[in-house]
Design a protein that fits this description.
50% helix, 10 helices, alpha+beta, 16% strand, 10 strands, 3 domains, four-stranded antiparallel beta sheet, Butyryl-CoA Dehydrogenase, subunit A, domain 3
Length: 391
């Protein structure tokens, strides 16, 4: 399409800020997504399955727990984690979610709050993809208010007895270990729960219209007994699981940019090739306005995420920063996806193109790891000093 080759999503050349290592990670993940994942993702999305054979390749690239130091982890920068998340989600949110849950929600709490013995036992195997993890926080009746969770852990001699359930758990049916959060007599605590423990059950959630190329489960604990050695010793209070979510949300802020770019590029290619009324669809003013809006949203999202990565590296990024960027970028991405869907017309609902898949996935990202409304109230509290969550 004449003239359109210069209209790239990275309008402000932010990728030029990447180091040599970060650029290599970006290119390696991009090639993997293009060569190995994109050719099969539509079929897996339609079937409601995840390509399990690709997990070993993801591990071989050093992406599992990539931003953690030691214990077999790559120890990359936050920015490297961000651009890897962007390239993974350009493939599909399900692929990025696998990596995000493994590194930020399952490995991070062990790395941050686990004992040295726990770190040595679990992290190297998780980094190698030999053990997949999941994160059990959300419950059927307690999503945005996890501090009111009903799952309990009761001390019984040298053991803990866990009862309760969790819902909407990514990786739940493929995980060998679950990080489970439960109420105890001393407040919320975290536990490392091998999924082959008697009393543990994971049930696949079916009939999903979003995140179909991802394993999603409900978890059930029925008098599940684990030893004290599997309690995360330094994970105390609701702040611990919320800290995990802040780590994961950072990756989301970059990941959704990948979804938006995929939709933008699909619309640009389609509109440049399709003619109506004797001319390219891309030549119409309404089309160009949509391209301008999409490019602006992608650029603003990228600027926020790159700045967030800088602040994270400086140790100055807070949960409020992450809430703002997660809220803004997911909204920008879903608006871009919806616009691109309409630009493709009837073809926009076909899995021959990536747009409807990304659009549906982003409905989940708008909700998970803090709904848009919750992040709005986090920002509102930061502005006013008044919490709107509890009376």
């Amino acid at each position: 399409m004449a003239g359109m080759d210069v209209m790239i999503p990275d309008l402000f050349e932010l990728d030029q800020k990447l180091s040599t290592e970060e650029t290599l990670i970006r290119d390696t993940v991009r090639d993997f997504v293009n060569d190995k994942f994109l050719p099969i993702v539509a079929d897996h999305y339609e079937a409601g399955t995840f390509p399990m054979d690709l997990i070993a390749q993801v591990a071989d690239m050093g992406l599992l727990g990539m931003h953690l130091e030691g214990y077999g982890c790559a120890g990359t920068s936050g920015l490297a984690y961000g651009v890897a998340s962007r390239e993974l989600e350009r493939g599909d949110t399900g692929l990025r979610s696998l990596v995000s849950v493994q590194g930020s929600l399952a490995m991070f709490p062990i790395w941050k709050w686990g004992s040295e013995e726990q770190k040595q036992e679990w992290l190297p195997r998780m980094a190698a993809g030999e053990v997949i993890g999941c994160f059990g926080l959300t419950e059927p009746d307690h999503g945005s208010d996890p501090s009111s969770m009903k799952t309990t852990a009761r001390r019984d001699g040298d053991d803990w007895i866990i009862n309760g359930s969790k819902l909407w758990i990514t990786n739940g049916t493929i995980a060998q270990v679950a990080i489970v959060w439960a109420q105890t007599d001393n407040g919320i605590r975290g536990f490392i729960v091998p999924t082959d423990t008697p009393g543990f059950e994971a049930r696949e959630i079916k009939q999903k219209m979003s995140l179909r190329a991802s394993a999603t489960a409900a978890l059930f604990f029925d008098d599940l007994r684990i030893p004290e050695s599997l309690r995360l010793p330094d994970a105390i209070g609701i702040g611990a699981p919320l800290g995990c979510l802040t780590e994961a949300r950072f990756g989301i802020t970059f990941g959704v940019i990948g979804s938006a770019i995929a939709c933008f590029e699909a619309a640009r290619s389609y509109m440049g090739q399709r003619e109506q009324f004797g001319r390219s669809l891309a030549s119409f003013q309404l089309s160009q306005q949509k391209f301008a809006d999409m490019l602006t949203d992608i650029s603003n999202a990228s600027l926020q995420s790159f700045r967030l990565a800088e602040m994270k590296a400086e140790g100055r990024a807070t949960a409020v920063h992450v809430s703002m960027v997660k809220r803004h970028n997911v909204r920008a991405a879903i608006d871009t996806a919806r616009t691109a869907r309409s630009m493709l017309g009837a073809n926009g609902i076909s899995l021959e193109y990536p747009v409807i898949r990304h659009m549906m996935n982003l409905e989940s990202v708008l909700t998970y790891e803090g709904t848009e409304e919750v992040h709005t109230l986090v920002l509102g509290q930061a502005v006013t000093g008044i919490s709107a969550f509890r009376g």
